[in-house]
Amino acid sequence: MTxxxxxxxxxxGENPRLRIxxxxxxxxxxxxxxxxxxxxxxxALIRRDWPALVGALPRxxxxxxxxxxxxxxxxxxxxxxxxxxxxxxxLVLGPEIDLRLFPGAWANAYALDGARPSIQIFxxxxxxxxxxxxxxxxxRDAWAALVAExxxxxxxxxxxxxxxxxxxxxxxxxxxxxxxxxxxxRDTHDFIAMLRRHKATRRQAFRLxxxxxxxxxxxxxxxxxxxxxxxxxxxxxxxxxNRHAIQIHTGPxxxxxxxxxxxxVLDPDFNLHxxxxxxxxxxxxxxxxxxxxxxxxxxxxxxxxPIALLFGERKPGxxxxxxxxxxxxxxxxxxxxxxx
Length: 340
Prior knowledge:
By secondary structure, the chain is an alpha+beta fold. The chain folds into two domains: 2-98 and 105-150, HemS/ChuS/ChuX like domains (Heme iron utilization protein-like fold, 3-Layer(aba) Sandwich), CATH 3.40.1570; 175-253 and 278-339, HemS/ChuS/ChuX like domains (Heme iron utilization protein-like fold). Helix content is 29%, strand content 31%. It has a nine-stranded antiparallel sheet with strand order 1-7-8-9-2-3-15-14-13, sandwiched between helices. A nine-stranded antiparallel sheet has the order 4-5-6-12-11-18-17-16-10, sandwiched between helices. Helix 9 (221-232) packs across helix 10 (322-332).
């Protein structure tokens, strides 16, 4: 452990801006192993009662919730509200913090002390699932009480070696039947179940469905859409997730910036950091629903996994916004340079 911390300190000394996730890759270990070793300061082990832990987070007041994958980081400020649990999932459906959590493979959680306290959850592979950070509006007494309540003296060690996630295999899929089932969708939430029935990956379905349902876009389509949304005051929904958590922002975006290879939304209550170099494919996707078609821009990595999904702001029972459809059409027509 001491050797790992020494190597981490030397690496940070060479590159002070290096994030702990990237440092773990350079050191041949996992982010969870670095956190557990104290690389970011003193840690307390948190017991693995996931519904109770998430259910207790509303006590904290205003926090920052962070969910990420390799190429996108989604940060949302606000309070946890309306937490509920069901078979295999935990939902947070508040107006500020909006999450779909799948704790089946969650493995370790730590409370970090210091200038910016946080609670960080990792999966069995040592990869970060979800993090909660204290802010100026956080009830620090409630935070301390929550950490004390969930602290434990015993917990399994985190994964020490990184796991390589290969692209899922793609078998034969009946394109005609897939398209028929796609056209019969009545709810966007049924899309994943449709993919499972056909044993198709998301990327495979996009390639087979037909251009009216899935059209390949320029890799910069995500940032182009966000630029157009900001300039045209079009409220959006931005989904970013990993294998065990999805976080959603609903509302406008305003302040945009490109820094060190990342495209950023830097608003008071919502930050997005998108590494466009990691976008292997971008698609315009149309899904039928009972309320009419719903259009999205979906960014995939080299393995075909979602990096980020963009929709127009919409609630169930509402038709899709016409200004969002016009925005997507502009991106699809190649109006990317105009959005830059």
